[in-house]
Specification:
6-stranded parallel β-sheet
Length: about 210
């Protein structure tokens, strides 16, 4: 019996991942890196940073930090200007909140997260939110989901993770928690073979949970 739902954020509850990639792609280019989508996804799955490519080309830490600052500003601009909604999210959360304790477990920066949710009601359905800095190591390490289990005083068997990326799936598996992967076009081609379940959209999640 599952009692706790641990939600990834980017790509599951809001469609932000393409915009983070685009902001990074634009701002890393002055350092000589033409960031390719496939390479970006591969690095992300294993917890590597795109900025390591710039370091390999001789960029200094100061140059990289300057470009990261530009990326962060551009990404927040995208968050304010672009459509990042995923249809049906709030109705699914409202339905599931009646029967499950839920939390968001994300690698997003707290400042970005707060900007995204300033005018949304998604967080209202959650017991708590863990963002970057709330745990020692980011996904694909197990730390984020282990921190959530600890916060709930739950066992891995009592929880289910909802993810869309290989990086997040790796984190859930490393924490010993079953994971359902929601299809997302941005990460098509990643390895989801370790997922316990796979669904095409969040609308299918309530029916899946009734079967568990």
């Amino acid at each position: 019996m599952k009692s706790y739902l641990l939600w990834d954020h980017d790509g599951v509850l809001v469609e932000t991942e393409p915009w983070y990639f685009e902001a990074t792609r634009q701002c890393i280019r002055p350092l000589g890196v033409e960031l390719e989508h496939a390479r970006y996804l591969q690095d992300m799955a294993h917890g590597h940073s795109a900025w390591q490519q710039a370091t390999a080309l001789g960029a200094s830490p100061q140059q990289i930090e300057s470009c990261k600052d530009q990326r962060n500003r551009l990404y927040q601009q995208f968050l304010l200007e672009q459509d990042i909604e995923i249809a049906g999210v709030e109705s699914v959360l409202e339905e599931l909140a009646a029967n499950y304790a839920m939390a968001i477990v994300t690698t997003a920066k707290r400042s970005d997260f707060e900007l995204i949710h300033a005018q949304r009601n998604i967080v209202d359905h959650m017991e708590f939110v863990l963002t970057s800095g709330d745990y020692p190591r980011s996904k694909p390490a197990p730390d984020p989901y282990l921190a959530a289990l600890n916060r709930f005083s739950a066992t891995p068997e009592q929880a289910l993770v909802i993810e869309d990326s290989e990086r997040g799936l790796r984190s859930a598996v490393a924490a010993g928690i079953e994971c359902v992967v929601v299809a997302n076009e941005f990460v098509t081609g990643q390895d989801f073979s370790a997922a316990a379940y796979f669904i095409d959209s969040l609308a299918q999640l309530p029916d899946l949970l009734r079967e568990l």
